[in-house]
Amino acid sequence: MIVVPPGRFTMGSPAGETGIGTDERQRSVTIAYPFAVSRFAITRAEFKRFIRATGRKIESCSHPMNNDIHGFDGIAPRPGVSWTAPFPQTDRHPVVCVSWQDAKAYVAWLAERTHRPYRLLSEAEWEYAARGGTTGDRYFSDDPRRQCAYANGADKSGVARHPTWASWVPCSDGYPETAPVGSFRPNRFGLYDMIGNVDQWVEDCYQGDYAGVPVDGSPMESCAKDWHVARGGDWSMPHENLRPAGRDVEHPYSRVDTIGIRVARGE
Question: Which of 16, 102, 134, 215 fits as disulfide partner to 98, beta carbons 3.0 to 4.6 Å?
Answer without folding.
Answer: 102
